[in-house]
Specification:
CATH class of chain A: Mainly Alpha
CATH topology of the largest domain in chain B: Rossmann fold
CATH class of the largest domain in chain B: Alpha Beta
Number of domains of chain A: 1
Radius of gyration of chain B: 19 Å
Low-confidence stretches of chain B: none
Helix content of chain B: 25-40%
Number of helices of chain A: 13
Largest sheet of chain A: none
Distance between the termini of chain A: 32 Å
Mean pLDDT of chain A: 88
CATH topology of chain A: ABC transporter involved in vitamin B12 uptake, BtuC
Shape of chain B: globular
Strand content of chain A: under 5%
Largest interface: A-B, 43 and 58 residues
Largest sheet of chain B: 6 strands, mixed
Distance between the termini of chain B: 44 Å
Structural class of chain A: mainly alpha
Oligomer: heterodimer
Mean pLDDT of chain B: 91
Order of helices and strands of chain A: HHHHHHHHHHHHH
Shape of chain A: globular
Strand content of chain B: 15-25%
Order of helices and strands of chain B: EEEHEEHEHHHHEHEHEEHH
Structural class of chain B: alpha/beta
């Protein structure tokens, strides 16, 4: 019974992958679309990370793109400096990207996760600005830490082409499974309890500092993994790709998908990427820059029509909460006043 | 011996003495009432016991050991649970998950177990879910296990909050105005519920309440506080006849 329940999603995932691969290979969808599909996977992984931090644990972060950038730059530095050209080397680079973003998240999270709501938002925003400025000025680090490889404000080039749609898709599937299993566990419940009422969570025995830190570190590591994939797909990194506006993009995707919904975040992230690109084809060339007018308008309309996001905390299919445990026999002693 | 001993407890907010040199003891297995007019500092005492606030001076001993300076989750792990005056459920979580959250500090499996869904994870998760369902069934909430806590009617939210507090297996249960907003029939139900959980879970109870009928009906011993200080202590009968208490509640007699 359990195997059957896992089989269907597995078949669907493999089928989606196979169909897309065939379309890419037969060039029904050209290399441009392969890029867009891959980009949507990176964006989704990154947004799932922010979903853990904001959607599930309720910690408002405005600096998520900084961790995306840290993952991208650290992984690219590793592969560029060591001239990595194997899949195994790339896997190590992705883990380095995730680990370095997670580590920075841990160090920055320790002091700032004491802050609540708006104040935490401002602290993370400040951190995002710091990282962007740092990346702009890596020329000052020339000679140490591989600073001369990072390219500063000119951008980082010469990153080996290691990523593909397969990598992007594979990591997206892993990211979704890990997040689902995290959410439906004691750790996930602790995070949700913190989001719902931090004082009550504390009093119910939840070590709030610990779980906020865990959620923040995992979320940042997701961004780092996404950044590492992104770096080796586009092979050019520029600090402006990881600025405050990018953080806002991620935040909007998470809110649009519905806080605390994995399904919603995936759909919103993919939809957002395709919307931005799709508008390129729909709009005449002299109106292309109006994309950034049309897309906020769509956002405003969405928020008016569905204020709790696309999925409003609900899930689809295998992402729904598992509820198949056997029901216990009704207990013999009941509390008074209970007649039901 | 006393399970809880509050000794000369004080807490100042700026120049305001919210709690000033309050002392009382709750014996093992007792049902103790803490009463007083609005703003007397009763809830502050609860917040001090549970570690939400730190005392300015004084000591709180639980089972002989000082718990001053411990973080709230550690106090809970030692065996003190509470409910709140303004119900604080996890509104967006299901009724079942509200109770399961209370097992947090007892869960042994780690992050890797959860992500990989190991045997240890499954066994522990199955066990705590069954325990939670039994709890809900005792409190008549099993039918509502998959509903969001915020969608429950008021009386059931109160009951769920008590169930959630008891699920953390406390030896001392602090109830902060459990009868607030209840009609007389609901208050009578609550009184028998309190008697029931006392015997069934053999838990010591400290109760803050305004409804005198409830306090006088169930409490064995009462401490009255006013303006942050202890005004009187004694049995319900003694408290009812105490002129200082009557004055604090009703004002000075003009006659």
């Amino acid at each position: 019974m359990k195997a059957a329940r896992l089989l269907l999603p597995l078949v669907v995932v493999l089928a989606v992958y196979a169909v897309l691969q065939i379309l890419f290979m037969t060039e029904v969808l050209n290399a441009y679309w392969e890029k867009i599909f891959s980009l949507s996977a990176f964006v989704t992984i990154c947004c799932l990370g922010l979903g853990i931090i904001y959607g599930f644990t309720g910690q408002f972060s405005l600096g998520h793109a900084a961790f995306y950038g840290i993952g991208a730059y650290s992984a690219a530095l590793f592969t560029k400096a060591l001239q990595v050209d194997s899949a195994l080397g790339f896997l190590v680079a992705i883990l380095i990207g995730g680990a370095s973003a997670g580590l920075v998240g841990f160090l920055i999270g320790l002091p700032i996760l004491r802050l609540r709501s708006d104040y935490l938002g401002i602290a993370t925003l400040g951190f995002g600005v710091m990282v962007k400025t740092g990346l702009d000025n890596t020329d000052g680090l020339a000679g140490l830490l591989g600073g001369d490889l990072l390219g500063g404000a000119r951008g980082m080039t010469g990153i080996p082409p290691l990523a593909s749609f397969t990598w992007a898709f594979g990591f997206l599937v892993i990211a979704v499974i890990v997040l689902r299993n995290f959410v439906y566990s004691n750790l996930g419940r602790a995070c949700l309890a913190i989001r719902e009422d931090e004082i009550a969570a504390d009093v119910m025995g939840v070590n709030t500092t610990r779980y906020k830190t865990i959620a923040f570190v995992i979320g940042c590591a997701y961004a780092g993994v996404a950044g590492a994939l992104y770096a080796h797909f586009y092979r050019f990194l520029h600090p402006s790709n990881f600025d405050f506006l990018k953080s806002v993009d991620f935040l909007m995707v998470v809110v649009l998908g519905g806080l605390g919904s994995i399904t919603g975040t995936v759909i919103a992230a993919v939809g957002w990427t395709f919307l931005l690109e799709g508008l390129r084809f729909v709009l005449p060339s002299n109106l292309l820059d109006f994309r950034m007018v049309i897309y906020p308008l769509i956002l405003i309309a969405m928020m008016l029509l569905r204020p709790r996001g696309l999925f409003g905390g609900n899930e689809l299919g295998p992402l729904k909460p598992p509820i198949d445990e056997p029901q216990p026999k009704a207990s013999e002693a009941r509390s008074p006043g209970v007649t039901a | 011996m006393s399970l809880l001993k509050v000794d000369n407890l004080s807490r100042y907010f700026g120049g305001l003495a919210a709690v000033s040199k309050v002392s009382f003891e709750v014996p093992q297995g007792g049902l103790h009432g803490l009463i007083g007019p609005n703003g007397a500092g009763k809830t502050t005492v609860f917040n001090l016991i549970t570690g939400i606030y730190q005392p300015s001076s004084g000591d709180i001993r639980f089972d002989g050991k000082s718990i001053v300076g411990l973080e709230p989750y550690r106090v809970t792990a030692l065996g003190i649970a509470r409910t709140f005056q303004n119900i604080r459920l996890f509104g967006g979580l299901t009724v079942l998950d509200n109770v399961r959250t209370a097992y947090n500090c007892r869960v042994q499996y780690n992050l890797a177990d959860a992500v990989l869904r190991t045997r240890r994870f499954q066994a522990e998760e199955r066990q705590l879910t069954e325990q939670a369902r039994e709890f809900l069934s005792v409190f008549g909430l099993l039918d509502r296990q998959y509903e969001l806590a915020r969608s429950l009617p008021y009386g059931e939210q109160r009951r769920l909050e008590i169930a959630r507090a008891l699920a953390s297996q406390p030896r001392l249960l602090l109830l902060d105005e459990p009868a607030a907003g209840m009609n007389p029939a609901e208050v009578r139900q609550l009184m028998s519920l309190i008697e029931f959980i006392r015997t069934r879970f053999s838990v010591t109870i400290l109760l803050i309440e305004h409804q005198m009928g409830l306090v006088m009906g169930v409490c064995e011993h009462i401490t009255v506080v006013d303006f942050g200080q202890v005004l009187a202590r004694g049995t319900p009968k003694e408290i009812q006849d105490n002129p200082a208490v009557i004055e604090a509640y009703l004002g000075k007699s003009v006659a």
